[in-house]
Amino acid sequence: MTKLLSPAPPPPVRAGRLRPATAPDHRTGLSRLRLLAWPAYLTGFVWFLATQGMAFANDVVFLWLIGALLTAALHSGHGPRGFLPVLRDWIPVMAVVWVYSLLRGYGAHTPWAPHWLPQLRADEVLGLGETWTVRIQHALYTPGSPHWYDYAATAVYLSHFLVVFVLLAVLWRRSHQRFRQLLACYFTLTFAGFATYLLYPADPPWLVAQQGNLPPLHRVVWETISTMGLPQADSLLENGSQFANDVAAMPSLHSAYPAMLLFLFWPTAGPRLRALLVAYPLAMAFTLVYGAEHFIVDILAGWTYAAVVVLGLRWLRDRRADRPSPSGLNAHYTPDALAAEFRRLRESVED
């Protein structure tokens, strides 16, 4: 009688490897979201520019910046879990900047009259009898017909609303230590300028000219923007000055921020970056004087404020690092150094 052979048992299956045939692949959905993240963001950004025009109000810039960071978190595969660090670190920053913008607008209503004569006299001395704003505009500017350098000056001026925020976003992703340093300098410098605006309100050159105390001057940046044909470009001044303060000229924060970047990044920068760090404040200074936005002494004051803030905060940080801890050990010891120190102390006690 032939013996029937039983079928061979199926090979063992590792736990967790089998999936129901109808189970959805969630990874495919996440991959699609990752692929669509940046196209969706850029589509929304282009639509905003096409319908609303360029808006450089701080709150609008921050919203688009936070949107870019959230998009980057989604694109990197972190999903919604990556949103929490962005919101945790950036919403307080946005709140502080918005509060400053609001206070800056209120700062325009001081009980004392704005100052303009000391700045004018100082610029006349520097210009050998005539301000450099008047000299440069008469030599270079053609009303209603911008030249290439007018567009370049406009780009440099508008970079004030973007450069620091973009650098903060880059450092937030690459180096939290540098992010905190730049943020501390930015906040300290900004509120130091605001305190000065309250104590010493000052008119810019274009406003002094409107009052008849200077020859007629043009706001080159805003007139150039009006001739560019961009959507709602005429509303840029209004959008960018939602909490405007026309007498917030001394010191010039437009000149202070580029100088802040120079002093902050110079110690670790290479030759090419150092050239850019020097060129940016100089280009901004020329733009501000040429465009009748600030007197030269406003710019020098801005550079001075930046140097004091950056070097002062660096000195405080170095002093805190050198301060001994309560245990008598330097606070900046590494964990390995601390472990070696404890081993040495224990061996000395045992001996």
Walk me through this protein's architecture:
By secondary structure, this protein is mainly α. The protein has a domain at 113-346. The chain is 65% helix and 0% strand. The chain contains 15 helices and no strands. The chain has helices spanning 26-52, 58-75, 83-106, 117-126, 132-140, 148-158, 163-174, 176-199, 205-210, 220-226, 236-240, 253-265, 271-290, 296-322, 335-350. α1 packs antiparallel against α2 and α3 (83-106) packs parallel to α8 (176-199). The longest helix has 27 residues, at 26-52. Residues 13-26, 232-242 and 328-332 have low confidence and may be disordered. Keywords: Membrane, Transmembrane, Transmembrane helix. It comes from Kitasatospora cathayae. It holds the Pfam family PAP2_3. The chain crosses the membrane at residues 35-55, 61-78, 90-107, 151-171, 183-200, 247-266, 273-290, 296-316. Its main location: membrane.
Low-confidence stretches: 13-26, 232-242, 328-332
What amount of the residues lies in strands?
A: under 5%
Shape: globular
Q: What series of H and E elements makes up the topology?
A: HHHHHHHHHHHHHHH
Whole-angstrom Rg? 29 Å
Specify the structural class: mainly alpha
| Average predicted confidence as pLDDT | 79
Distance between the termini: 88 Å
Work out the number of β strands. 0
- Could you give a short account of the major beta sheet? none
Q: In which range does the helix fraction lie? A: 55-70%
Number of helices: 15
Protein name: Phosphatase PAP2 family protein
Organism: Kitasatospora cathayae
Domain Inositolphosphotransferase Aur1/Ipt1: 146-310
Membrane topology: Multi-pass membrane protein
